[in-house]
Amino acid sequence: MKYVYLLQSLSHPNEHYVGLTKNLKSRLASHNAGQSPHTSKYLPWKLITYLGFTDDAKAAAFEKYLKTGSGLAFRKKHF
Questions:
Q1: I need a surface site. Which of 4, 27, 31, 56 has the fewest CB within 10 A?
Q2: Which residues form the GIY-YIG domain (predicted)?
Q3: Neighbours of 35 (CB within 10 A)
């Protein structure tokens, strides 16, 4: 199972991060421990939503979509 997740920075509420992982709990802890260079400057993070996929390719495609311009519009409208 792969998870596509959306985080929001608590210190900078306009900052969001979309990611992909097999272990959501561990990955969130990693982000909040400052172990990711992309998210370390906006600590701490909270989980907004996540979706589970049994198909790894579909999970990767959805993560990629959420990082596009139309994916950003989708995120704003639905999350």
A1: 56
A2: 1-79
A3: 11
| Burial (Cβ within 10 Å: 0-12, 13-18, ≥19) of residue 50 | middle
Identify the structural domains of the chain with CATH numbers, from first to last: 2-78 (3.40.1440.10)
Peptide bond into 37 cis (omega under 30): no
Question: Full-prediction pTM beyond 0.85?
Answer: yes
pLDDT tens digits, one per residue of 19-58 = 999 999 999 999 999 999 999 999 999 999 999 999 999 9
